[in-house]
Predict the structure.
Amino acid sequence: MEKLWTGRFQKPLNEIADAFNASITFDSRMFREDITGSIVHARMLAKQGIIASAEAEQIVAALGDILAEIESGALAIDEKCEDIHMFVEGELTRRIGDVGKKLHTARSRNDQVALDLRLYLRAESEEMIALLQAVIQAVVKVAAANTDTIVPGYTHLQRAQPISFAHHLLAYCAMFERDIARIEDAKERMNISPIGSCALAGTTYPTDRVFEAEQLGFRAPCLNSIDGVSDRDFCLELMSAFSIVMMHLSRFCEEIILWSSWEFSFVELDDSFTTGSSIMPQKKNSDMAELIRGKTGRVYGNLFSLFTTLKGLPLAYNKDMQEDKEGIFDSVDTLKMCLQVFAPMVESMKVKKENMLAAAKGGFINATDLADYLTKKGMPFRAAYKLTGQIVAYCIEKGLDLESVDLETYRSFSELFCEDLYEAIALSTCVNKRISLGGTGKESIQRQIEYYQKQAQ
């Protein structure tokens, strides 16, 4: 197909250079957005009297046919074309002749691609939010079934204090909720229309950019035409938000991988989300969780690649900016797949409550509660802290845990210890008496569950 820009040139583009320059192999996924923007542009041109209404109707009808045929598979996108814009315009002109050539009036590929990319990412952002809501629903479902499941809470990967497993899971819901907010925030700034900026300086035609923006669902047209064609901040913002989502998924997956190990044995992933070994018949590997963890670096790399591409570009448009698409498209595809796998993987995993409780009984994770017991009896907390440390050291020496030390021995450390001590340091008490807002107490957990159930709807 003849290039749209060949008028000034005396010889065709070198074959290797042509392939190097082309973007249709990856920007063809924006065919819907390209045709949608073109339909609105044709209607604006007719509204403003730039082209005849009959011509606009002919263009719109032909574009509708092209869209339907691509979607049905009746029309294949020709990868010999330079990009999706040239394919659509070339196909339009092939069908309706010179009238099709009028579509590009008061428009450049510079503002056209900026428009297509915003439309595409806006739709993908909405889908990503829906997938994150599904993940929250899956996590909340598991949390709701484990409000009484006691597990060690960790700091420094050392057993720290007893919590409910629901409490631990709901921490990730808080992360995913922030992820949704970041994507929504990025989408709001993205929702500005660049169409009508043309190559960089605007146009001499009496266009109506507000009409085009409104018809395409944007909240406004961009104020500066140079910025309209050269801005890719919206890609960076969205890729940054996606990277943070991947970081949260990776942290969660790291814990699932640990919990699935024989050393922890806190959970067992369903067979449908694990694989085996080609040589070791006993193996059940958490490969889906490991892949999500691994793909996090890929999404990070796409973000830093685009940062590097953009950092030295003078205004306005440069061909370097074609490098925005493969990275952002890959990040979209990668995150989408990870979220689609993650929700059912978590929802279907088996929680081994007995093993969690057994782990919680070791490591003196009720030591803080022992210190709190003394504090409530009148001992200053720092003194109670020191005395509890001495009792823990005694237990380690004798091979005991705090619950198995007899009262007489406790009273040898302090006369403040009474029979009610054992109820105070029972693991269930340690969990449920933490009544502070956001804590691991049962009422707090139920409020969190109800909140995230509503947020995920």
Q: What stands out?
A: The first strand starts at residue 150 and ends at 155. The two ends are 49 Å apart (CA to CA).
